[in-house]
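FYI - complex with zinc ion, inputs then prediction.
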Amino acid sequence: MRAFAELLERLVYTRSRNAKLKLIGDYLRSAPDPDRGWALAALTGELSLPGVKAGVIRQMVTERVDPDLFAMSYDYVGDLAETVALIWPAPPDAVLDAKPEALSLGETVERLSRLTRLDAPAALSAMLDRLDASERYAVLKLATGGMRVGVSARLAKTAFAQAVDLPVEDVEEVWHGIDAPYPALFAWGAGDGKRPDARGLPVFRPFMLAQPLEGEADLSDYAAEWKWDGVRVQLVRAGGQTRLYSRAGDDITGSFPEVAEAFLREGVADGELLVRGAGQGADAHGGAAASFNALQQRLNRKTVTKKMLAEHPAFVRLYDLLIDGERDVRTRPWTERRARLEAFAEGLDPERFDVSRLITAKDFDDLARLREGARESAIEGVMLKRRDSEYVAGRKAGLWYKWKRDPLTADCVLMYAQRGHGKRSSFYSDYTFGAWDSEGGLLPVGKAYFGFTDEELAWLDKFVRANTVGRFGPVREVEKTLVLEVAFDSIHESTRHKSGLSMRFPRIARIRTDKPAAEADRVETLKALIV
Amino acid sequence: MTALGSWVHAHPDGIHIPDGDFWIDPSAPRDRALVTHGHADHARGGHGAVLATPETLDIMECRYGPQSGQPVRYGETLRLGGVDVRFVPAGHILGSAQIVMEKDGERVVVSGDYKRRPDPTCPPFEPVPCDVFVTEATFALPVFRHPDAADEARKLIAAARANPDRCVLAGAYALGKAQRLILELRSAGWDRPIHIHGALQRLCDLYRAHGIDLGDLRPVADAKKADLKGEIVLCPPSALNDRWSRRLPDPITAMASGWMRVRQRARQRNVELPLVISDHADWDELTATVTELDPEELWVTHGRDDALVHWRRSQQKKARALHLSGLEDEDD
Ligand SMILES: [Zn+2]
Ligand SMILES: [Zn+2]
C-alpha cells in the first residue's frame, strides 16, 4: 500500500507529462503482481468496488468524528476522500500496539471488493486505523474511484507501454479484451506470454492518422477524399455487440445510440461522425453535413433526448475498413480495403452510413483548384491516401496526408491575458482578443494560447505586465492597443462570446506592432467569413 | 453580576480596553497600541505610541520606519489605567507575545498568534491560566495536523540532493517562516549556502542582529544560473510563480505552509513539493491548549472560528467568535 500511496502523492504534485509517465512506469516495473495490475486498473478508471460508496464513507467517519466538525472540514477541503484521510483520528493505543501486518495493495483491493453496504463501515474503519494519512487517502480513492491525480486512462496505458517497451497502440488494442489485474498483459509485456487475444470482443483498435501535406503528391500514387469537420470514430461490431470509440479510445456508444443500433455488420470501420444539415459540403462532395457546432450539441452527453435525436440526427461517413467480418484486413493495401468498404456499406442503413466520396482530379493542380473551390462549401480541405498503404496505427510518414485549405486570418486587439500552466506558469500565455463592434467598442471573438515562438511569448508577457489596466484573479485586462494577427480554420456562430462568434483552432500568427488598434478588423467583417 | 471580561471590548478593527486607554493589534491608527507580534495584519504603521517586545518593535521599525515605541520585556508588568498588563511568550515568531491583562481579579489573555511546537527562533508558548482566553483559530479544523517540521526540512534537502541539475525554490513567509525554515535546514545537516530572494534580506539581517545564527546566506541576484544547480533558494510565496523565478535553473517549486496539508491548495499554487510547516497551532494544539487553560470563556479572534466555537460549546463551555475583520489568514 505504501508504494501506491506514494505514487498517488507524487502524481498529484507533478505537472509535466513526461515526469508522470516516468513515475507510473517506475512503479509498474518495480511493484509485484497483482499490486501493479490493480494500480493500473485504478489509474485507468477500471476498478470498481460497488460495496463502498460515498454514503458508507460518510457514515463511517461520523461514527468517529463530530458530524458538524466533519461537515465544516469537508466544506473547506472539498474532496471526500481527502477530508476523511486527513480528519481520521488516531486509533486507540491497543490497535497501534497490536502491530498489525501491513496490507498490500492487492490484499486491500480484495478485501474492499468483498465488502457489502452492511459490513463496509466497520471493515473500512479497521483498515484506516492501520494506515497513515497518505495511505488512507489512497485506500479511500480506490474505494470511491476517480483518482483526481491528473492522469488520463490513455496516459496510464502509455506509461505501461513505455515501461515494457511496446507500442501504446498495441496495448490499446488488447486493452478491452483483458480484465484487472491483467496477468496476461503483464506476462506479454515481460516477454513471457502471448499477446492477449481480442477476437469475438468489440474492442478498440488504434486509429491511423494523417500528417499535414507539405509540397505535392502524385495522384497516381494517392487517392483524394474531402476532409470533413466532425469527430473521427471507430465502429466495432463483434460477438453481437456494437461499440463506438473516439480517437482517444473512449467508448461514446451511449451518446450516439441511433448510429450504434444501425451498425449491424460484424467488422470494424473508421469514419467521420457528422450531423445532418447544410453547414459543410454539398451533393457534389457526396452530400452535405451540418457544421461542427451542430455536432457539438451531441458530444459529451450522458443522456440523449428525443429532441436531440430529431434535431441533430447523426450519421457516419465511412473512410476505411479494418476488419471485414472476422477477417483482419489492416495489412491489405488501401485499394483492396476501399473495395471491401464499398461492399460492406451496401448492407448498412443509408440513413446512418455512407462512404466518403473520392475526388476525381486530372492532376495535383486540378485538385488544388477543386480544393480552393470547396471553400465556398465550407469544406475543411482534402485527404490524400497512399493507394498501397496498410492501415497502420499512428501518424506514419508518407501514407496519409491532410491538406487543409489555407487558414483564414483576422487582425484582432488583445484584451485579456491569463497565466499558463506548468513551464509556462510564470508567463501570461493565454490571450483573449476582440474585434470592433458598430458602436466602437471591442467584443471578444476568441482565445488562443499557441502559434507564437518563445521570443514572441516573452515579448507578449512583457507587454501584458507593462500594460495591465485591471486584474481579476489570474486574468489581467490590458490596454487595448496591441494588434494580433490571428489565424483560424473557420468561424461559426456561437453563444459563447458576446460577439456571437467562435473560431475553430485560433492561433497567434503574428504580432502586428505596426498596426494601430483602430485599424483592426470589425465584428461585421468576421461575420462575413461564416459559410 | 457583570459579564466576564466586560472591560474588554471587541471591535471589528481591534480589541479596545477603555479603562487602560489602549488597543490590542488595532487595524486602524490609534493613540496607544499594544502589538502582539510583527506580522502585518497584527502590527500596522501609524499608531501614536506602540507597546511591544523589543524584537517586535525592531521588526516594525524595519517595515514602517521609526516608531514612538515603548519596549516591554517578557514578564515585565505595566500598569495602564486600572489594568495590569504583562507580555509573555507566544512561540509564534521572534518577539511574539501573548498579552495578559488583569483588572479587579479577572484575568484575560490575548494570545495573538501562537504555536506549541519548538521553534529555535523564539521562546516557547507560556500557558497562563485565565478567566477569558482570546485565541486565534487559523488552523482550527480537525483536518489540520502539522507533521514534524524536521521531517519536512529533510524532504526539502532530499529533493535538492536528488536533482543536481535543478534547484529547489521554496516559498516561505518573509517574517518568521523563512528564518525558521533556514534553521530547520541547518539542524537537518544542510550547511551549504542558502540563496535568498532580496525581499528576505532585511528580516534575515534583523534575526541575526538578535543573535540567531542563520549560517551562510547569499543573495540570489549575485549567483549565476548554473551555480544554483543543486542548491536551495528561498523566496516569499508571492515570488514563486513570478517572472523573477526565470533566473533559476528549472526550479522545483516548494512551499512551506500549514495550508499545504490540503492537496488542492498546494495544486492551486503550482506547488510540486508541499512542506507542511506552520507557525500557527494546529487543531490538536489549539484544543489541547484550551483544555489545559480551561478558561471560563473562550473568545476567538480570526480563522476557522465556527469550528473552534462549536467544539468548545459541545463541552458545555462558553465560547464565542469576535469576528475581528482586520486579521487575516497569513500566507503561512
Ligand atoms: Zn502571525
Ligand atoms: Zn494572525
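The CA atoms of residues 253 and 271 of chain B lie 5 Å apart. Residues B 37, 39, 42, 92, 113, 330 surround zinc ion (ligand 1) (CB under 6 Å).
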